[in-house]
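User: Please predict the structure of the protein below. I'd like the answer in structure-token form so I can feed it into my own downstream comparison script.

Assistant: Understood. Taking the following sequence of 159 residues as input:
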Amino acid sequence: MEVKFENLKIKSTYYGNKQCNWDCKVRNYNNHVIRVTNLDTKKWTSFDYWGSVINPELSTEDDLLYAFEHIIQDAVCGTMYFEDFCSEFGYDTDSRRAYKTHCACIKSKEKLERVCGDVNDLQSRFLDRNVVYCCICEDEIGVVTENNEVYCETCYMLK
């Protein structure tokens, strides 16, 4: 399975042969390798990703984009100071698990930035990919009616 976002090709390969590497009681062997390639520079990197126990494989483009969003979120966490990271996620700053997790986020940040540039900018662009703007006032449209019509809250024009 593969999908494109901007100049990135995101490809998932399901292996199903590797136990998840975090402390968990669940035996999850639903591992994927997600490869991110910059089509302009030809640089690439890869990440391990585990599907859920119920839906082990990434079977749709939306599934793959959801996985990529989590990779971006992990990388953005790598931009945080350790104390802020602990505060945000409820870790004790003396926790070895917190330190190990934060280091993994930093590693993800470094890998993703080598291919995609600044991870905060990447996250903003990724989250804005489905935003619709009004053709009249150019404000972001965000209201969906019960008939699945979208309208602008500023000028009340239906899209």
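That's the full token string. Residues 2-128 form one domain.
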